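PROTEIN DATA CARD
Card holder: RNA polymerase subunit sigma-24
Chain length: 178
Origin: Micromonospora inaquosa
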Amino acid sequence: MMDVDDEELLRLVGEGDRGAFDVLYARNAPWLVLRLRRRCRDPELVREVLQETFLTVWRAAAGYRGDGAAVGWLWSVAAGRLIDARRRALARPQSVGAPSEDVLAWSPSAEDEVLAGAYDVELERALHRLAPELRAVLQATVLDGLTVREAAVLLGVPEGTVKTRAMRARRELREALS
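Structure generated from the sequence above:
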């Protein structure tokens, strides 16, 4: 089963194949943890988000259409779970008093704060109207801060394709927002 690609594994997971899920997890959890840690310095939250990500994958794999790279879909699920977790954390009542060592050691990045806040409704709608492959490129290059080369490797497409999709996505967003 190790020679099966991620798209096929997702299809099998959608059919309830636990072995395919185990392979998908073993293959993708390490890089997901690394990417989540780049955006969130709280290791407990990263573990929670990883667990929620794969729970979502187990439940939603049957709905995966296979119209983009599976790794892009997995990352979009993980990024969504991270945003949800940050929103939940912001909604919790804050204690009053001197900050503990844990609070001082961890503070959200500017990107985390932006992502935890509500997107402008028009921008959010425009992003959701983008084709999945365009949205995946924007997520990789804009939200994750990957270079074109890194995004190409992650998405499994040539660098020129990443550049073209990024240009198309930006053009479509400009048109949708004007």
